[in-house]
Amino acid sequence: MKNIFKTAIFFLSLIMMSCGSDENTQVVDNSKPITVKTSVVTANGNNSFVTVSGKIQASNSANLSTRMMGFVNKIHVKVGDKVRKGQLLISINNTDLQAKLAQVNAGITEATAAYNNAEKDYNRFKNLFSDQSASKKEMDDMTADFEMAKARLEAANQMKNEVNAQFAYTNIRAPFSGIVTSKFIKKGDMANPGIPLIAIEIPGAFEVIAMVPESEISQIKSGSIVDVQVKAIKQNIKGTVTEVSTSAKNTGGQYLVKVLLNKTDAKILSGMFVTVQFPVEKTKTVSNMVLVPIDVIITKGQLSGIYTISQSNTALLRWLRLGRTYGNQVEVLSGLSENETYIVSAEGKLYNGVKINIQ
């Protein structure tokens, strides 16, 4: 009995020692902290600009079409080619016009012969009438025949001018020197009146087309100097407002505004999307806005967030509700307050709970 009792006490002691050992065991995090750079949230109360999205296009561009229907015989250029004013770009089959021109030339020959004959008769009767050898009625009839012959010849010549003008629409030429940017047709296709065939533009001169809401169009002034952020190359370019539309009848409540971009060495191209920041007069006091750079925002699906610093000096992803974009900054409506610190960049991959070392 005593042996059983001693054995039970021994095992109980082992269990208690084992429990005590578990309680004293701790997991040590030996991971190396990530070096990061931080910034402090600042609030901006000077909301003295309006920001909208836009698209770059060439200041001088043209979509060329024809007034004649016919098959495309040949396309003489390709996209990217430099062309000079008057250079032949597309040839359209003009067999019908050639036949019509032959008919017109035959009509001119006939009308010319009739005119020459009528002119001789007119001059002869004019002399006879002067010698009182022809009556006034005979002279009037001859004068009328001569005038009709003259009119028929003039009509035939004008018809030839019309046919020659139509020939111009079968040979599509460059209206100015520039670069071919698009082709909308290929050899053998049927060219239809008014349908674009080819597009050219003058390189180096660009403008921005932006649509401004009706609530803010009254604040946009022609001649204003604006900032244009080109998203694709992440550069800001100055521009000047050259046109402000006064009607939104066909644009769904959005007013068209054109901005001429300053000459720049930046590699901008037609079709690039931009953000335009229009300066406006401050009409009332506005509450301070929390602004952060767009490039520090983390996007996951429909959620947007930013990495901040926790009390234990680790990265903490905080979800935000964002507002409007102002140049290269975005307004934070909730989730981040003024004077809070957020992470700008890191020398490693950031995730929730990773240790950080502030540089």
Question: What structural keywords apply?
Answer:
six-stranded antiparallel sheet; 3 helices; 359 residues; conserved putative lor/sdh protein from methanococcus maripaludis s2 fold; 4 domains; Elongation Factor Tu (Ef-tu), domain 3; elongated; alpha+beta; OB fold (Dihydrolipoamide Acetyltransferase, E2P)
Summarize the SSE layout with pairings.
Blueprint: H1 2-23, E1 34-40, E2 42-44, E3 49-58, E4 61-64, E5 70-75, E6 82-83, E7 88-92, H2 95-130, H3 136-168, E8 171-173, E9 178-183, E10 190-191, E11 198-201, E12 206-213, E13 225-230, E14 235-244, E15 254-261, E16 273-279, E17 289-293, E18 298-300, E19 303-309, E20 315-326, E21 329-334, E22 341-346, E23 356-358
Parallel strand pairs: 1-23
Antiparallel strand pairs: 1-22, 2-17, 3-12, 3-16, 4-11, 5-7, 5-10, 6-9, 7-8, 9-11, 12-15, 13-14, 13-16, 14-15, 17-21, 18-19, 19-20, 20-21
Helix pairs in contact: 2-3
Describe the structure.
The protein is α+β, with helices and mostly antiparallel strands. The chain has 4 domains: about 35-45 and about 285-359, Beta Barrel (conserved putative lor/sdh protein from methanococcus maripaludis s2 fold), CATH 2.40.420.20; about 50-60 and about 205-280, Elongation Factor Tu (Ef-tu), domain 3, CATH 2.40.30; about 60-95 and about 170-200, Beta Barrel (OB fold (Dihydrolipoamide Acetyltransferase, E2P)); about 95-170, Helix hairpin bin (Helix Hairpins). Helix content is about 25%, strand content about 35%. It has 3 helices and 23 strands. The chain has helices at about 1-25, 95-130, 135-170, and strands at about 35-40, 40-45, 50-60, 60-65, 70-75, 80-85, 90, 170-175, 180-185, 190, 200, 205-215, 225-230, 235-245, 255-260, 275-280, 290-295, 300, 305-310, 315-325, 330-335, 340-345, 355-359. It has a 6-stranded antiparallel sheet, with no helix packed on it. A 6-stranded antiparallel beta barrel has the order 3-12-15-14-13-16. A 4-stranded antiparallel sheet has the order 4-11-9-6, with no helix packed on it. Strand 19 and strand 20 form a beta hairpin. It starts with a helix and ends with a strand.
